[in-house]
Automatic annotation (TrEMBL):
SUPFAM superfamilies noted in UniProt: SGNH hydrolase
Protein name per its UniProtKB record: GDSL-like lipase/acylhydrolase family protein
């Protein structure tokens, strides 16, 4: 009898911490869910618009819609797009990931919506429209596979590219080549509290003796070889997007830019976490190398290059998370790219100031 009581007591001793752990995890998840900003429901977008049977990244179903988003007959976020292109129309095309998809913004507030409106205001003698080929988790590799066929149908006069980010160049710890931007995926499990999980992982990394005494991942020869190969592959993919014609390439650096040590640690935190990079300085160096390679690709193809993201303040007014712009940030990006677009417009030049 006494032995049975001891066993029962032991089971309770084991059970109580487990119950407290589960309750704490649920509470942390609810706290996280209540405190985080209301974001865009990527999973619901996928359910409503994804072409059946396709993998992520996925194309949108022609004619599909979700909330304020509508897709044309080509499955692009391009309302009123006519094919073939009318002779009198100057057509802009955006080729990008979720950064220029601008999921949370209404059509007229998107990057390409604002740009087209401003060009129409400055050049009333011209007719403009646009094609927006962008979406969640659209990697440069995916864009290079899908855009050439669409390009022939869209027939753009000017192509604006924001793709080829450090997230794609830096080798993925899991061996995948994945891009920046939001992936359309199922919402977090009820037990998952991302902030708590990241905090625990960060503590374990800092307390890990192995991590402290071993070489940083970014210093290994295998990492450097893979990074160099990824850069080369990305340059080839970029060049294939616009083999000939007018194009502008925007450096896709998100918030990462040179700063003091404290700010640099904050600006590179997301990139270091997702790519398991040990030092903030390494994350910055890898980013600058990637941006430099993208600029070199633009020059060699006769395109314009603008490192516009570096000129947008890395604060909550301009970035809604580590990678995506707010409405204010999107408007600022448009203003920075506008002169480059005007400089290469076909048969349409501004007369303002003349």
């Amino acid at each position: 009898m006494e032995r049975r009581e001891e066993i029962r007591f032991g089971l309770w001793v084991l059970l109580v911490p487990f119950v407290l752990l589960v309750v704490g995890e649920i509470g942390a998840h609810k706290f996280y869910s209540a405190k985080r900003p209301t974001g865009f429901d990527w999973a619901a977008l996928e359910i409503a618009t994804r072409v059946p049977g396709t993998d992520i990244p996925y194309r949108f179903q022609p004619g599909a819609s979700y909330e304020h988003l509508a897709f044309d007959d080509l499955g692009l976020r391009s309302p009123g797009l006519r094919t073939p292109k009318p002779d009198e129309t100057i057509r802009l095309a955006v080729v990008s990931n979720s950064t220029l998809f601008n999921a949370v913004l209404p059509e007229e507030k998107t990057f390409i919506g604002l740009l087209t409106q401003e060009l129409a205001r400055r050049h009333p003698e011209c007719s403009f429209d646009y094609a927006n080929f962008s979406g969640p988790a659209y990697t440069l590799e995916f864009l290079a596979q899908e855009w050439p066929t669409l390009r022939d149908q869209v027939d753009p006069d000017v192509t604006i590219i924001l793709a080829g980010s450090p997230y794609e160049a830096i080798p993925d710890p899991d061996g995948r080549r994945s891009g920046s931007g939001a992936a359309a995926a199922a919402p977090p499990h009820v037990w998952e509290a991302p902030h708590l999980r990241r905090f625990v992982e960060a503590v374990l990394r800092r307390l890990s003796l192995a991590r402290a005494i071993t070489m940083a991942r970014e210093d290994t020869s295998s990492f450097k070889r893979e990074f160099t190969q990824n850069i080369s592959d990305m340059q080839g993919d970029l060049a294939s997007l616009v083999p000939e014609g007018r194009a502008i390439l925007i450096g896709d650096r998100a918030q990462v830019r040179d700063a003091d040590s404290t700010a640099l640690a904050a600006l590179t935190r997301e990139l270091r976490y997702k790519r398991n990079i040990k030092r903030p300085e390494s994350a910055l160096e890898l980013t600058e190398t990637t941006i430099g390679a993208m600029a070199e690709t633009a020059r060699s193809n006769g395109w314009s290059f603008v490192d516009a993201m570096a000129q947008i303040p890395a604060d909550p007014e301009h970035f809604r998370d580590a990678e995506h712009l707010t409405g204010k940030g999107t408007a600022d990006l448009m203003e920075l790219v506008l002169p480059e677009v005007e400089a290469i417009l076909p048969e349409c030049r501004s007369t303002e100031g003349s």
